[in-house]
Amino acid sequence: MVVSLISIILLAPLAAFVIFALLGLAKRSFPRQDLLSTLAMLVALGCSLYLIKEIVPKPDPHTVEWISLGNITLSMGFYLDSVTVIMLIVVTLVSSLVHIFSIGYMHGDPRYPRFFAYLSLFSFSMLFLVVSDNLLGIYIGWELVGLCSYLLIGFWFEKDSAANACKKAFLTTRVGDVGMFIGMMMLFTKFNTLSLYDGAQEGIFTQAAAQLTTGDMVWLSIAGILIFCGAIGKSAQMPLHTWLPDAMEGPTPVSALIHAATMVAAGVYLTARMFPILTATSSLVIAYVGGITAIVAATIAIVRFDIKRVLAYSTISQLGYMMLAIGAGSYVAGLFHLTTHAFFKALLFLGSGSVIHAFHAMHAHHDEDHTDEAAHEHDNHGLVHEHGSEIPPDQDMRNMGGLRKKMPITFITMLIATLSISGVPFIFSGFWSKDKILGGVLGRAMEWNSGHHYILFVIALCAAGITAFYMFRLIFMTFFGEPRNQEMHNMAHESPWTMTVPLIVLAALSFPAVNHLWFNKNNFKPPDQPHIQAPQHAYVSPDTKIAFSLFGLSEAEAAEEEGGKDTEQADKAHHAHEVAHNIAMVLSIIVAGLGILLSWLFYHRRRFSAESVATTFRPAYNLFWNKYYFDEFYDGVLVALTVWKSRLFAKFDLSIIDGIVNGVATITRKIFAAFIGFFDNRIVDGIVNRVAEVTWAAGGRIRRIQTGAIQTYLFVVLGGIVLIILIFRAL
Amino acid sequence: MSLQHYLVISSILFTLGIFAVLTRRNAISILMGIELILNSCNLNFAAFSRFVTPPENIDGQIIAIFGIVLAAAEAAVFLAIILAIYREFGSIRPDEVDTLKG
Fold it and tell me: Which DSSP helix (H) or strand (E) runs through A613?
């Protein structure tokens, strides 16, 4: 049953894609192809929802042997647990809604069927990634979603900026993927399998847990960090985050599906999957990368004016949060935030798409996108930079304002998503997931008495405040106040129902009830982390340290979930987390309120001027505006270095290699060829010519005999006969 | 009349024929020379048949008649060739028919 359901989930979008591809090859089309792929996604969604019932506490993988080479066996299979089902539902749900949204948004595009073909292929790839029970399958899905991302970012490839952005996305994520592949190979070398769980053979996690006593786990840390490199690239973490803002060149539904809800969350999913083999070191690296990403991306988002770029940096920041959660051991919190974020960020992107669509109506659909290429012409080195002048007018928040009356549904749904992402307490899902992360980080800090985690908690708290600030900045600039561009404002209108219905559904999902159903304590238990031990200076009493070390923090959380064990350490851990969650909740409400208040004062009441603050803190503003000079750094160092290196090699090629080749050519021509030419001309030709000349000369002489006069011949014949007669007479 | 007389006459005819063939520039005259040579041969055949072989053996005389027939046929073919040559070259002098000469 499970296998067939998963097969349907996988095959439905794949079949839609194959049909599209075959039709495309045959240069045919039938009306309403979009409904086919939408239907395929809805089927997959239905199956995913049905799968909720099928989860068993100890799931078994469905594995088949794929490749067998000597003693190496690679298997392919499905693995179904709570995480898989959550991801399946998130992917199919968001994908279905984005399909429906796209019917309205992409209407009239010349490559309309191709768009849905790509969406179907992406959905298949993402689902394949999610259900795979081994690293190889995950890697295959991983690369496939990367490909789809590339195709969809470059969907309007007539635009130079889009063409550059898709290349940049592909290459940048590839940097991380190399690390991930090395990490996979390390695990494979060590364990001789890529299966994560027990199947026909021992999986990685079982074997890794069995090696607990062998002491030095440095290599495991390195493997974990390397695999996390893949997640850094895919989830746009520092320092490989630069591709995600540029990826906004793609159509907005793509931004919502791939670059907000699903593909970028694949990095978080992978990190969560690798949770059982994370060591203390790799966890800390993950937590720091996530934390730094969260705050850096948030600060960049403050000063952006392109509505999609704000959301892109917000996505990077929120993904950083999830990484931080998993790095700090708050497995459930990370995945919880992944789910809530998928819904509210998809909603924000689709909402922004709705706004852009409203402005777009004043132009022929997307045509102006294709004609304003001149604005993008100075993108040298293939990298796209965001400068004020390059923001398309329909995405520039400085052209918006006062839209709440024009687009009531878009406004209300986006406001709900914004309240959710800002962490407005109690009735919005984002508050709960964010609070769980903050509480988890602070809990670990208190429990381990770890300075690192205190620092990370402060970072996360600041990022939460900034998030509230810039999200409300977006809302105030877009929907409140007076229209800044009256001409565009007059053209704006509410979107058709295919676009508003997904917004409403996603808005409903931004309330906690739906999500909370899943992340309750019985359904969702984090796996053990056998390689993480509480540090020596933790306040855990010495006699319980061994027990603690065996189960790590997860034991503490398990204890918390089961209502407290009798052991002292569990009580203390429980207490620490209880206290931490309360503190975190209060603090997060305060910073969120502060952020919203400041945003209100700045952008609604105009009590303070953002410009004057920017002037006062000029260096900081410049830093944020230029995105911490990451693009400039890559341009100036990596790209320049590559160009310099290429020039060097070109020079080497031109002078040394070509020199050798030319030198050999010269030697051959001047010496060998000359000698052989001499031999041919003089000796071979000489013999032939001499023979010919001799024959010629001989012929010239002998031909004189043949006069051609018949009587001469007769005379000779007669003379001959007479001669013969005379000779015979003489004998 | 003995065999010698015939042979002498035959020799004179043959020599005249050879002379004509070697010296004439006209193809018709050459043909007439050839006819003389042929007829000298026929005369020899007939003479030898009469004086040398037994009377009942007339092979020589038959060959002489064959020779006359042959000469007639040959003359016909020769004259036809000469006509064709005349049409082509406007001349019947063999030394002027020299297009095969290199």
Answer: helix A610-616
CB A345 within 8 A of CB A319: no
Q: Which of residues 687-726 of A touch B (CB under 8 A)?
A: 703, 708-711, 714-715, 718
Could you give the domains of chain B? 3-96 (1.10.287.3510)
Query: Is A718 close to B18, i.e. CB distance below 8 A?
Result: yes
Give, as one character, the DSSP assignment of residue A671. I
- Residue A223 in contact with residue A186, Cβ under 8 Å? yes
Closest in B22, B100, B101 to A711, CB measured: B22
Q: Does B21 touch chain A (CB under 8 A)?
A: yes
pLDDT tens readout for residues A521-564: 555 667 767 666 655 444 443 333 433 443 344 444 444 444 44
Cα of A729 to nearest chain B Cα, Å: 18
Residue (of A279, A116, A282) closest to A209 by Cα position: A279
Work out the burial of residue A213: count CB atoms within 10 Å of its CB; fewer than 13 is exposed, 13-18 middle, 19 or more buried. Answer: exposed
Chain A CB contacts of B94 under 8 Å are: 709-711
Distance from CA of B63 to the nearest CA of A (A): 24
When CB atoms are compared, the residue of B18, B23, B98 closest to A708 is: B98
Structure tokens at A262: 């699903």
| Distance in angstroms (rounded) separating the CA atoms of residues A255 and A119 | 12
Around Cβ A530, how many Cβ atoms within 10 Å? 21
- Residue range A720-729: mean pLDDT, rounded: 93
Q: Among residues A287, A264, A437, which one has the least CA distance to residue A342?
A: A264
Rounded to a whole number of angstroms, the distance from the CA of B92 to the nearest CA of chain A is 13
Residue A513 pLDDT class (50, 70, 90 cuts): low
Phi-psi group of A283: left, alpha or beta (phi > 0 → left; psi -120 to 50 → alpha; rest → beta) = alpha
Lowest mean pLDDT among A340-344, A540-544, B87-91: A540-544
Contacts of residue A486, Cβ cutoff 8 Å, sequence gap at least 6: none
DSSP secondary-structure letter at A604?
Answer: I
User: Considering the entire predicted model, what is its pTM?
Assistant: 0.71
CA-based end-to-end distance of chain B: 54
Write out the two tokens for A115: 């768009």
Beta strand extents in A513-584 (DSSP E only) = none
Other residues' Cβ atoms within 10 Å of the Cβ of residue A479: 24
Percent residues over pLDDT 70 in chain A: 83
Residues of B in contact with A715 (CB under 8 A): 22
Phi/psi of residue A728, nearest 5 degrees: -65, -35
Structure tokens at A364: 């022929």
Among A324, A391, A298, CA closest to A352: A391
Top pLDDT among A530 and A218 is at A218
Give the pLDDT of residue A364: 39
Contact list in B for residue A703 (CB cut-off 8 A) is 102
Q: Residue A281 has which token pair?
A: 């070191």
- Tokens representing A680? 């041919």
Q: What average pLDDT does chain A have?
A: 79
